[in-house]
Amino acid sequence: MDDPYQNNINQPGEPYPTHGEGGEYTYPYQTDFPPREEDDAASDATEGHDEDEQMYEGEYQGIPHPDEIKEARRAARREARTKARMAAEVIEETLPEQYESIMEDCGHGRFQWTLFTVLGLALMADGVECFVVSFALPSAEKDMCLSNADKGMLGLIVYVGMMIGAVVWGGLADKLGRRQCLLYALAINCIFSFLSCFAQSYGFFIFFRLCSGIGIGGSIPVVYTYFAEFLQIDKRGEHLSWLCLFWMLGGLYASFTAWGIIPHYGWGFSMGTEFQFHSWRVFVLVCFLPSVAALAGLVFMPESPRFLLETARHDEAWMVLRQVHDTNWRAKGEPERVFQVSQLKIPETQDDEFIEIQSETGTAFQRFTVRHLTLVKQVMKNMMSLAAPDLRLHSLFITIVWFTMAFSYYGLGAWFPDQIKYLQFEDYESNVKIFHREKVERFHFNFTLQNQVHREGEYIHDRFINIEIKNVKFEESLFENCYFEDVRSTETFFENCTLKNTVFYNTDLWKDSKFFNCKLENTTFLHPKKGCHLNFQEENDILIYLVCFLGSLSVIPGNIVAGLLMDKIGRLKIIGASMLGSAVCTFFLLLCFSQWAVVLFQCLFFAASAAAWNGIEVITVELYPASKRATAFGVLNGTCKLAAILSTFIFGKFIGITKIIPIILSFSALVCGGLLAFKLPETREVILQ
């Protein structure tokens, strides 16, 4: 029988075959085979070895050792796994690049500007929400007889609701969709804002404002995420900065409408004594109109195609991208241009498919439970992933920048009006008129009593009819046979007084709230006015509206500068320079001793800080991948509202005591955040991941 391996063994005297010779069984040996002398040297090197050593018998026959074969197989498997990982990374990297090229092909035009207007109204509603309670509070506290503790809680409850809403809606937007979550958030805001207009009790009013805040809290994180995913790289920074203008327009809208509506007491109606709808409620009603307009416009907008790709809904994403393409080029007069993308790369979403299979089985209650519990777990997992090693350091830095900026901005934003009120109060107190031991008999008071102190006076057979008493205090005085009718009072009190045979008819001078340590002998209170009745003639409130209006107006130049420079000098320089400039304005507040000096530096501070807000919001969108973008923005915006709650509470404690501590705290926070901002990565030319 012929040896099947005979062609592989060289016969004596035959040359070694080379590559391409010897038929089909030949091995590809090199033509430059080593000289024979080297083989002799290698053979001589083995002469001294012990013959008893174990040697692999195929060593001199060119057959590899089994261990070498195993090692070669392991190396091949390792190389295959490495190539597979590299191939997967290439696929993941090409999706953002493909999406960016598609957006460039779609262009920037009518579709983006329409979406810009709709989302701008949603941001405007958020800006209005921050001012509604602070403007309505001076009137609401009298209408609902609020204590100082109740006023403080009402002022903070809106920020609490917005903090909750930012985290919740931001997390849900990465799982349910940007458009869907924004629709839910705006609908909740509209419903509860409307109900709060008619709430007569403090409990219902604060509950409705809390729910309203939870709704509108989702607008900022969802709006910026939503709009950024329709922008190409060279338009992103500029147009996100223009979008920030709408938040400032919300402040202008709120202050202007408050100035025009609240002082008009007649702009309301009442149904008996139990239901009152005064002008401040009309103001609250008007303030939810931007949210209604945004909700109506959003109904006609599509979902973000980037989100649709993340959830493996590539057909819907393709349709949306085609809609954007056709809308823009049709408006530019080129309807013949065809959307040429035929295939979209999508990430793997096997978990979502498995969850969907689970949620389609069982009873209706079981399906509901599975879906929502799974959704909660996914949102929590997404939040925890923000602390992953590749994002941990950047998340820490951007969180500190958000917190320090919000701590100073919202804290001083609440401190400025309160400080102006305190300076007004000091001026008012310095002009108080003091009457000592005056005696008035049978006199008819038919004029306003204002900013007076009456000590040890005697009033006998006097009549106080249809007058207003503002900031008047009667101390250790005697009222005998006096008659009070249709009297309206503000900050008016009787201390250690004696009242004999005196009648109070249809007045708001209550026995329990206006008289302290007084002796009431045969004194009658007939038809007392129920509720805390309002005084809309106070000039202090109108000045506060003007101050807030000027503060919101001063932000516009800062927004314009940020929009023009955002894509030219970068996000980090905008944030750092703006925060450090705001710190300088804050430091000079130590030199302000008059009302208008405070107003001037308030405007300078708001103008300087506007650019920082623009840069912070732009870099937050660009720093995180699409699957975590809204979640990260929501968590950071929730941190912002937490800082607002803390700073508003802390700064309010020092009103009338010292201004040094609020100023030093704000200055330190801004400097710290401004310097730390330079440690963030520059994202000006980075494709959205």
From TrEMBL:
Record-annotated membrane-spanning stretches: 113-137, 152-172, 181-201, 207-228, 240-262, 282-301, 391-412, 542-565, 577-598, 604-624, 631-651, 657-678
Family in the record: Belongs to the major facilitator superfamily.
Gene3D superfamilies, A to Z: E3 ubiquitin-protein ligase SopA, MFS general substrate transporter like domains
UniProt keyword annotations, A-Z: Cytoplasmic vesicle, Glycoprotein, Membrane, Neurotransmitter transport, Phosphoprotein, Synapse, Transmembrane, Transmembrane helix, Transport
Span of domain Major facilitator superfamily (MFS) profile: 115-684
Membrane is among the record's keywords: yes
PANTHER family for this protein: SYNAPTIC VESICLE GLYCOPROTEIN 2, SYNAPTIC VESICLE GLYCOPROTEIN 2B
Annotated stretches, region: Disordered: 1-54
Location in or out of the cell: Cytoplasmic vesicle, Secretory vesicle, Synaptic vesicle membrane
UniProt name for this protein: Major facilitator superfamily (MFS) profile domain-containing protein
Keyword Phosphoprotein: yes
A GO molecular function held by the record: transmembrane transporter activity
GO CC list: neuron projection; synaptic vesicle membrane
A Pfam family: MFS_1
Main location group: membrane
Single biological process term from Gene Ontology: neurotransmitter transport
Stretches with biased composition (Polar residues): 1-11
Topology versus the membrane: Multi-pass membrane protein
